[in-house]
């Protein structure tokens, strides 16, 4: 089975074992642990201090990334017996994620367990994910400690983000303020730009549950289970979470990294209004969400962005505010393809934020290089970059977390 999995990534069985552990040297069995750790660090962490300088990090980001890479080098060989399970964090993409302590180092990690008795396509997906995570070192990408195989499972060990994902935060916050989402937008754009510019890949599964946050104020993309290395900026396959997929992906046409931007825009609307925005809220629900009538247009007409009546009798979706029935999957896909994309209501958010979300909704028409140029230079992003926002303080208050004495300035 290992040979089949490795073959998907043009690796031999020996190469696959190297990929999950230490590089094999002539005296690897005799080498002291410190030397083996150094070999592993040099092999799987391609970002030297010089490479880190090329990432245009501020001093605090550089120190934190260097500290993480140093921790990673000291962890040593990962083994199943070295982990103590603390709690379950979630499940998805063929695996279960748990909060664990690595007993030899004392580090708290997030451990993703993936069974190998799965479809070949999923096994190939695991290889791609491991490749990406080994090579990615950015303040906007969740850190990766290593991976190992044991008892029919691959364990992927990642940085633990104590704030969890934004969909979990949303359940507590009900709605996330615009100024907070400004910092989120910066981090997501920079993370996507890093993946494309440094590794020529797309994320392919941008959604609130794949944006992680912590009590230091850091915001990072995670879960590259649906990411693949791309030779060019275009792809032609169905991979991802359908409810966040852009129209061109659902139609089977060519799509590029701009589909990630479309998914980000949909996520921003969800985080802003407090629930998945398809079907769109009607005026009555918007009034319940914002505590007052919401108007749309210069004449002050009642806001209504739902052109279809929802059939009764379906489960309720969302985070508590949504009183409308959830769509069946085919109805949802048809809506994404044939109806105008969700938008932010007028009179609640700034014009800059509304325009930014609207550009995300039309991102598929842009050239690939505009991901880092057009969007990162948008007025909403430039304003959010200079705006003083205590993201860590807001998050810790919302989730009742203990805030570190020296939080990171979010997304800066």
From TrEMBL:
Keywords tagged on the record: ATP-binding, Kinase, Nucleotide-binding, Phosphoprotein, Serine/threonine-protein kinase, Transferase, Tyrosine-protein kinase
Domain Protein kinase: 83-381
Region (Disordered): 298-320
Reaction(s) catalysed by this chain's protein: L-threonyl-[protein] + ATP = O-phospho-L-threonyl-[protein] + ADP + H(+); L-tyrosyl-[protein] + ATP = O-phospho-L-tyrosyl-[protein] + ADP + H(+); L-seryl-[protein] + ATP = O-phospho-L-seryl-[protein] + ADP + H(+)
Signal peptide: none
One Pfam family named in its UniProt record: Pkinase
Domain of life: Eukaryota
Coiled coil: none
The protein, known as: Dual specificity mitogen-activated protein kinase kinase 2
Taxonomic classification: Eukaryota, Metazoa, Chordata, Craniata, Vertebrata
């Amino acid at each position: 089975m290992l040979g089949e999995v490795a073959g998907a990534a043009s690796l031999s069985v020996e190469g696959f074992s190297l990929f999950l552990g230490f590089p094999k040297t002539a005296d690897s069995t005799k080498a002291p642990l410190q030397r083996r750790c150094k070999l592993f660090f040099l092999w799987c962490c391609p970002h030297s201090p010089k490479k880190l300088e090329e990432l245009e990090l501020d001093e605090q980001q550089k120190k934190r990334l260097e500290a993480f890479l140093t921790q990673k080098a000291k962890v040593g060989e990962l083994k199943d017996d070295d982990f103590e399970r603390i709690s379950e964090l979630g499940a998805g993409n063929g695996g279960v994620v748990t909060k664990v302590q690595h007993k030899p180092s004392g580090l708290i990690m997030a451990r993703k367990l993936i069974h190998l008795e799965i479809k070949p396509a999923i096994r190939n997906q695991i290889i791609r994910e491991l490749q990406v995570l080994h090579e990615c070192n950015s303040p906007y990408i969740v850190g990766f400690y290593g991976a190992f195989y044991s008892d029919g499972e691959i364990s992927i060990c990642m940085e633990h983000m104590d704030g969890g994902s934004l969909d979990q935060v949303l359940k507590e916050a009900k709605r996330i303020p615009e100024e907070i989402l400004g910092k989120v937008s910066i981090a997501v754009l920079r993370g996507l730009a890093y993946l494309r510019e440094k590794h020529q890949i797309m994320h392919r599964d941008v959604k609130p549950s794949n944006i992680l946050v912590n009590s230091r104020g850091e915001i990072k993309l995670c879960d590259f289970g649906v990411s693949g290395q791309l030779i060019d900026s275009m792809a032609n396959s169905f991979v991802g979470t359908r409810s966040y997929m852009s129209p061109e992906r659902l139609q089977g046409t060519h799509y590029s990294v701009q589909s990630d931007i479309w998914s980000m825009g949909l996520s921003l609307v969800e985080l802003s209004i407090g629930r998945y925005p398809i079907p769109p809220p009607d005026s009555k629900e918007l009034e319940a969400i914002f505590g007052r009538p919401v108007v749309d247009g210069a004449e002050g007409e009642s806001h209504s962005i739902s052109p279809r009546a929802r059939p009764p009798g379906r489960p309720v979706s969302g985070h508590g505010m949504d009183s409308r029935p959830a769509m069946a999957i085919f109805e949802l896909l048809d809506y994404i393809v044939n109806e105008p994309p969700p938008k932010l209501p007028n009179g609640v958010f700034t014009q800059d934020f509304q325009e930014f979300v609207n550009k995300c909704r039309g991102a598929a028409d842009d050239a690939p290089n505009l991901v880092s140029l057009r969007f990162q230079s948008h007025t909403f992003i430039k304003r959010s970059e200079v705006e003083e926002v205590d993201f860590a303080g807001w998050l810790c208050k919302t989730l009742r977390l203990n805030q570190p004495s020296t939080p990171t300035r979010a997304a800066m």
